[in-house]
Amino acid sequence: MNGLLTVLLVEDSATDADLVVLELCRYGFDVVPSRVDNLAGLEDALMRRWELVICALALASLSASDVIARVRAADPAVPLVVLSGTIDEVASFAPLKAGTPNVVPKSNLAQLGPLVERALAETARYRQDVAPRESGLTPPRSRIPRSTP
Question: CB-based contacts of 43: which residues, under 8 Å, 6+ apart?
Answer without folding.
Answer: 70
